[in-house]
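Q&A log
Question type: sequence-to-structure
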Amino acid sequence: MNSTDLQMPDDATLVAWLDGELPTATTAAITKALRQDAALQHRVHLLQAARAEFAWALQRPDSAPPSSPQQHRGRLALRGIGSVLIAAAALVVLVVLSRMPQASKDEAASNAWLDWQVSMPSPAWDLFSCIRFHLTGTCKTTTPCQIVARQANETDEQLADRIFADKANPATLPLVLEAEVTGPDGWPRRGRVARVEGTFTQATSQLTVELVDVQIDHPTISPIVTVALDADGVREDFWWGLRRVGAVQIGGAHGCMPEQVGGYRVRFTLRSFTGPLDSRFLTFAEPLSVATGFAVRGVVGEWSAPVDGMRARIVTNTEQATSKRPLVFALQLRNESDRARRCNLTGTTIAKIPQPFHLDLMVDGEPWQQRTRLGVVTDANSSDLSHRVGWERSLVALADYWRQGATMPSQLTGVHRIGVRFHSEASVWLGSDKELWQGKIDTPPVEVTFAR
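Response status: OK
Response body:
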């Protein structure tokens, strides 16, 4: 950030910026600084997360990330607390409220057919965890309302034909579940919910939806996920990412898995089949929508210095790792060169680099080795993707995939500095290939406290 434009703002100033309460010139200067300063971005994301949890604790369901369409209502919910209090208590809130046992009270909706509402088991979640929502419904008529499980890439027409061909429940009202997710960077992304189905009757019932089942458009390169995000915790499963998140590619619909800390909001919509398909089914007059906000927490490392235009950083799910909450991290790469670049994160090559992950886990400055028989499943199409200027991409892995002798990270105790050394080298290449990136990057480390 240019110190002639603005001195480094304190947290109270940043909260005022989030609330839109600063002079125009100061607002513009902070906005400009945020584009250039990753540490400042991280502070803003933490404050957004704290705001979301404060609002939840006050049982104000109209809270939303400040960049969402509900910005002004969220601001009103927090105005009485005071900017200084929010800033000073941000880190404490992230710990305390996450342990509160109460359930959130979120939006409800109703029409002539159905009473419907959404709630969450927790207002705050670790990065790379199984984020879940509870959808509770009660039918107002004797006709059941059935949420139909959409298959991958299935159109409305294909889904309607499949349901119409199934005569098992001709008297039900078939419904399609969709969602819109808004994240810390302000993007609203609409998506369809896959694999989820359930039926609401006059007896109140509940349906659980995992965020990864919301298939949203990923505008850049989708993440490589090599762990399973289960309700009971993270576990090793190299197929899970391909099955649930999707194939690693540019664009397309992928399971929603937050890669940033900060405040999020999700809006679920139930609708019936529309247009020329109406005549075959019972229908709602209007769609029903419910929404809730939540926070995602984690530890975000600094970006490395650029190496031939590429930067890297480490992002972890926690700074307090235990056997029940093992350390999961993401290597994140950003292209800041003057052209698109290509580099591979996993796979087996004859090049002299770590394999199948092309990175070392660095513990207190020392490289740890990948364990033998590491069964990484690599999408063949992911090895030659064009990483365009300004894009970021991630590889998510479990720290216990690495070893120092017979020691795993989960066997450590005390505070340790954790980082990543990323290697990229092609086995065979053309000297005229200007997009191919080759080299080695060390991420600045983050501190993690290990307890068994």
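Response note: Residues 38-57 form the longest helix (20 residues).
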